[in-house]
Amino acid sequence: MGVLSGIKVVAFTHFAAGPLVAQFLGSLGADVIKVEAPGQDLNRTLVRDMDSPFGEASPYFATLNRNQRGIVLDLKSDGGRDVAMRLVKQADVLVENFKPGALERLGFGYPELRELNPGLIYCSISGYDPTGPAKNERGQDILIQALSGMIALNGREGEAPVPTGTYVADAYTSQMNVIAVLCALRHRDATGEGQWVHADMMASSLHMMAQEASYIMNVGYQPPRSAAGVAHTDHKAPYGAYRAADGEFVLSVTGAEQVGALADLLGMRGEIEAHLDERGLKVHRDEVAAALARAFAPLPVSEALEMAATAGVWAAPIRSLAEALEDPVVAAGDLVQKADSAYCGAHKFVREPINMHASPIEATRPAPAHGEHTIEVLRELGFDENEIGALVAKRAAFGMQ
User: Fold this and answer.
1) Is residue 59 over pLDDT 70?
2) For the CA atoms of 52, 58, 60, 65, what is the dihedral angle to 10 degrees?
């Protein structure tokens, strides 16, 4: 049994950040009930490949909605709202990531639900502070990456900045909200009081860049990106990615002595001799990085990595995500697991990276089909078969038989 066994979560969630919060709570043992609209969570169809084994199912939805039961309600109908209110009355946690005001207009804002269930922990995920002046602005991962300054840190100076290749703002924001919910549960254990908790995407993204922000706020300017590919605006050469004859690799943080030793092995110390001190590697980082890049270009990756190791410089090959997933270390850590469901068939997923040896997290449920658990949950809430039939007939609830 997970550490949150006995905790009931109602999730009014869609896309990524909200489902990730609900999924994590489910993986920790909570009973999570995802409430979808008749029109479905768009992530069911937004990213899919009809020629893949998933077919009409989305692998994104499958991996973000594990360990949840799925029901379908029309919250714009009296019957659908009644069912949702019964759910909320019994719940410990509500998670939602709709635009601020959307649930309030349906009667599911925190002030109303607090009266119904004083111990409820109401978790809101949004693009911006839902109490602030930008609360109605669109919040989506790449938009937040752009507006938070994150994208501006990536890529080479003189070229277009580069967004991250994954939904990093959504993912980090979701984890901040999981922490908030767990803390609120602990507070409720001590006081009996529920509360409203929220960590928005803009605030979370800025927090993710706290060390870079500290430089800008305290030193007084934002360093430019490197034209030669030094990968961090505040770092000195040779930190960054390099191309060899048969692939790419990275060099990490190191000191002037190690850079000099590497230059000796490459036979090009004279090109960077004048910059082989801590200040030179920072101020003249582009010249140093470019010179190293020219020297590495004709070598195979294996030889470049061997030279770096000999010189005491940290280095690693650049692998594709597919290659990383095949690493024996991943298998040894049981990070990739398998599931099977009527919704999307047999598939693999990457589990949460938390290891708790006395109370391990578990993947007990694959992502649900649309309305897969509606009838089951209605019965649990005390609706009899006639009432269930009436809700379905009125299209207030939608379920699979």
Assistant:
1) yes
2) -130
pLDDT band for position 362 (cuts 50, 70, 90): confident
% of the chain at pLDDT higher than 90: 89
Does a structural domain hold residue 346?
yes
End-of-domain residue from the set 283, 312, 341: 312
What is the domain-level CATH number for residue 281?
A: 3.30.1540.10
Within this chain, do residues 361 and 273 fall inside the same structural domain, yes or no?
A: no
Q: Is a pLDDT exceeding 80 seen at residue 22? A: yes
Q: Do 60 and 188 fall within a single domain?
A: yes
pTM of the model: 0.95
Pull the structure tokens for residue 211.
């060390």
Angle, CA of 78, 84 and 90, to the nearest 5°: 140
**Total domain count, the chain:** 2
Catalytic annotation on 384? no
**pLDDT tens-digit profile of 241-272?**
999 999 999 999 899 999 999 999 999 999 99
Dist. CA 248–CA 299, nearest whole Å: 11
Phi-psi region of 225 (alpha: psi -120 to 50; beta: other; left: phi over 0): beta
- Residue 368 corresponds to which tokens in the numbers above? 């649900």
Give me the mean pLDDT over the 90-99 stretch: 97
pLDDT tier, 401 (very low <50, low <70, confident <90, very high otherwise): low
Please answer whether residues 260 and 288 qualify as being in contact, where contact means their C-beta atoms are separated by less than 8 angstroms.
no
Cite the DSSP H helix spans in 106-200. Answer: 110-116, 141-147, 168-191
Residues 186 and 42 in one domain: yes
Alpha-carbon gap, residue 187 to 156, rounded angstroms: 46
176 and 55 in one domain? yes
Strand, coil or helix: 327: coil
Range of the domain at 343: 8-199+327-398
**Candidate list 78, 170, 246, 264, residue with the active-site label:** 170
Q: Which of 284, 312, 340 is the last residue of a domain?
A: 312
Share of the chain above pLDDT 70, in %: 99
